[in-house]
Amino acid sequence: HRDLHSFPTRRSSDLPEVAEQVVRFVAKAGSEEHDLSQLVVDPALLSVMCSELNEKRCQRGEPMISADLLEGSREEILHDFYERAMQNVSAATRTFVEDRLILDPGYRDTVALDVVFRSPGVARSDIDQLIHRRLLRVEQRGPVRRLELTHDLLVGVVLESRNKRYLEEKARKEKAARLEAEQREQTARRTLRRTRIIAAVFVLVSLVAVVAAGIAFWTMKKA
């Protein structure tokens, strides 16, 4: 309730409409058939959405938050939130989040904290930072503390980032393979050129030797 009223709206009569749209988006219930009192909303993600909306309002220089701003910014808000959360986080930690905390075709997964901290390149400080930034959370499952994304809404943007990274890695590998093939081809050409030069020199030396032997034989015969 406090988060929904912490940012300006166009006029007071717009507040219920904008607030309801924010709540429905966070609850992943777009239909008005769902009664608001029955929706389950993650307070942390709701707070993030309100904060991101206000940040977007400031970036665009708009004095008020409107329903139009929300409608045109939903996926963009989640994308910007994810990228800001990953600032100053190691590439290994980001890769771990994208590879281990979501399952195809798009579900959250959990990993035991002791497994997380044993993963190469994953620093405890990075994980603490992502928890502080509300991208991740720790849940107690029996005797084991497990790490997971804070909400299903984040799966899409994390999956998109992972797929983009996969494509970039594939492009880098293909480029490296092309460069390697070109280098091999250039090396083969240089080797062939050197072989031809050596062969030509050998033929020339052989001809000179034959001519010299002929001259010597002719001189000897004449003498």
Can you offer a commentary on this structure?
By secondary structure, the protein is mainly α. About 65% of the residues lie in helices and about 10% in strands. The protein has a 3-stranded antiparallel β-sheet with strand order 3-5-4. Helix 2 (about 45-60) packs across helix 4 (about 75-85). The protein is elongated.
Strand and helix layout:
Layout: H1 15-27, H2 43-60, H3 67-71, H4 74-85, H5 91-100, E1 102-103, E2 107-108, E3 111-112, H6 113-118, H7 124-132, E4 136-141, E5 144-149, H8 153-222
Helix pairs in contact: 2-4, 4-8, 5-8
Uncertain segments are 1-13
- Give the number of DSSP strands: 5
* Main sheet record: 3 strands, antiparallel
- Calculate the mean pLDDT score and round it: 83
Specify the number of helices.
8
Strand order of the biggest β-sheet: 3-5-4
Envelope shape:
elongated
The rounded Rg comes to: 34 Å
Span between termini: 122 Å
How much strand? 5-15%
**Class based on secondary structure composition and strand pairing:** mainly alpha
Helix content: 55-70%
Order of helices and strands: HHHHHEEEHHEEH
Give a quick rundown of the structure.
The chain has 223 residues and is mainly alpha-helical. It is 64% helix and 8% strand. The chain has helices at residues 15-27, 43-60, 67-71, 74-85, 91-100, 113-118, 124-132, 153-222; strands at residues 102-103, 107-108, 111-112, 136-141, 144-149.
Properties at a glance:
223 residues, mainly alpha, 3-stranded antiparallel beta sheet, two-stranded antiparallel ribbon, 64% helix
